[in-house]
Amino acid sequence: MPPLEEILQQEAGAEIDAHLAAADAKVKEIISEAENRAKALLEEHRQRLDAAARAASRQGQSAAALIVSIARTQAQGEIMDLVRQKALEALEETAVQAQYGEVLQALAAEALKAAVEAEKLVVPPDDRERLMGWAQDRGLDLQTDPQLRLGVRIVCRGGRQVENTLPERLQRAWDTLAPEVANLLWGAKKED
Q: Span 101-168: which CATH code?
């Protein structure tokens, strides 16, 4: 690999790491906000359900316990949705940062590595200018797709596509992140 390419890849990697670190800090802030909201929601549900449990018979208390469980699960689901939405909003904010062009180039380089016989680079219309030179340097036809957000798509000969976007990366990582977020919000589940 030519030294310049290696330096550019290292710089792009460092830039991505910096953006990920900023996103991580934003996620921690979002988690803190979500935790406070979760506590308020859980307390509200708890107060309503405690009043119902006091007025109910033993059978009513059993039903109230079921309602508490459902409400807690529902509130936790709402909070997790909120955290995920806030993370997506934080990713959207990266598009206005000065280094966003470098992030796009890094995403494109990763997609290109996964592509076989790449022919086209597809980008959101607003990002065309940012990646025009990059695509030309690699002999790729540059096209736009208004449906594409915060990333790129490589189209290969034969129609195979490799998409690499920030929302897609969050989606792929969410299964790993969600339990960690839940643990931060509510702690480890205790066996009753």
A: 3.30.2320.30
